[in-house]
Design brief:
This protein is an alpha/beta fold and 231 residues long. It is 41% helix and 22% strand. It has 9 helices and 7 strands, in the order αααβαβαββαβαααββ. The chain has a 7-stranded mixed beta sheet. Helix 3 packs across helix 4. The longest helix has 17 residues. The two termini are 24 Å apart. The mean pLDDT is 91. Bound molecules: S-adenosylmethionine.
């Protein structure tokens, strides 16, 4: 059980952390997300997503300021892109960023939580999420909801920072971003209720998904799921 496998500190932090980012913090996060380390991360994730799906319908859960959807649109213009976030303030930031990039016609954003997605069954070809999973209060219910909106055979790619990053990944991070930025990242995240790759895997019910494994994409661990073709 993924929830139980968080440390006591992780469980406490998950309880204390607000699920949706409130208005003031949304502005701060929006500013941070425009810095080079974040923008490089969004490009890397978009490249990874396109390997799984480059046409059809994509949903980004916990889209925050919507900055991942922008390189997604550039890299896969045939994807119909939708972002949702539980925080209304974040949806406002996302709409502004998408308008500034001139992509309002191609990207929709709306307020919704991962546990209750306002879409019909079997609607999306791919569901993605970046740095949001650790905020979800009821991750198992959210996984079931992701499966519901995915088409049979569709993939879910849930990228997040985790605890216990392998030494090689940390060394790669220091090489790419420098020790100072890695320290800032740690400062930003030491109190976050992060999973580790094993507890991430245990969030997904093997009865619901035929593929469940984790992979590294830059500094993020990606929980990779596939809904069976025959359901
Ligand atoms: C750290 S931000 C990441 C934003 C963006 N995906 C990124 O990579 O920059 C986490 C986002 O997840 C949203 N969030 C948290 N819990 C959520 C939930 N249950 N459903 C939808 N969004 C959620 C928060 O409001 C916040 O905008």
């Amino acid at each position: 059980m993924g929830q139980e496998r968080l440390s006591w500190f992780g469980r406490l932090m998950q309880r204390l952390h607000p699920e949706g980012i409130p208005a003031g913090a949304a502005k701060v996060y929006n500013a941070l997300s425009g810095t080079s380390i974040f923008l490089r991360h969004y490009d890397l994730v978009a490249e990874d997503v396109v390997k799984f799906c480059s046409a059809g319908r994509l949903l980004d859960i916990g889209t925050g300021p919507g900055r991942l959807l922008i390189p997604m649109y550039r890299q896969a213009p045939q994807l119909e892109l939708t972002g949702v976030d539980i925080s209304e303030a974040m949806v406002v930031e996302a709409a502004k960023n998408i308008a500034a990039a001139g992509m309002s016609d191609g990207i929709r954003v709306r307020q919704a939580g991962a546990k209750q997605l306002p879409f019909e069954d079997n609607y999306f070809d791919i569901v993605i999420s970046s740095a949001s999973l650790h905020h979800w209060k009821e991750p198992k219910e959210c996984m079931a909801e992701i499966r519901r909106v995915l088409k049979p055979g569709g993939a879910a790619l849930l990228y997040d920072l985790v605890k216990n990053m392998p030494k090689e990944i940390l060394a790669e991070g220091r090489r790419k971003y420098g020790g100072y930025r890695m320290f800032l990242l740690w400062l930003h995240s030491f109190e976050e209720p992060f999973y580790n790759p094993e507890s991430m895997v245990s969030l997904a019910d093997p009865k619901l998904f035929e593929t469940i494994h984790t992979r590294w994409v830059g500094l993020l661990c990606c929980l990779t799921l596939r809904k069976p073709i025959v359901v």
